[in-house]
Structure of PRA1 family protein:
Amino acid sequence: MDWDNVAAEDVIEALREVEWSTPPRSFGEFFSRFAFPRSFSKWKSRLKCNLYYYRTNYFILVIFVLGLALITRPLAIVGAAFTALSIAFLNDSFAATFNEKFIRTIRHFSPHMAAKMRPPHMPVIRGRSAARKTVYVCGKPRWVFVVIFLTASLVMWFSSCGLLWVLYALLTSLVVIVLHASVRTPNLKARLNTFREEFRAVWRNYSEL
């Protein structure tokens, strides 16, 4: 795949739609080969490729750095967990899986309430290009829960006086991610994995028509 032709918006869109349950890459693979890019275009291509391929590792890295920075502030740790959950809700696969499992759990106690949490029916017109589907969580648009969890995390950070530590931790994790994605050379496995996931995405979109 030619990552030079992939825009940053396309990478963000792919991270939003990709399967969230992909396991992280092994520790040995994550820290195996490093080299400085030879040009600015090579650096941009490598950065986009690694951000997509090692997305789960980077997400775990952010959580780990936040945990270390807030280890003496339990309330701030809960706020960081809420932030991670709100970020995870931005992924279509995670939001849909969470919604399905939560409704299934509620159905055991109150089938009537579980029925109300179902998303509204969206008819699919065959042969037309469908607009971007709205992802629902517990019957509400996804952004409602993102805003709720982000607001709750900010309140907890302010209450624990840990907002400055959170900003330091996020900045540190961002710098580490950019450095790793810049010097980690893309291997053949990363390229083959990208092609395989592209094929699955195209096949999934074709089957929905």
Remarks:
- Residues 163-183 form the longest helix (21 residues).
- Strands lie at 136-137, 140-141.
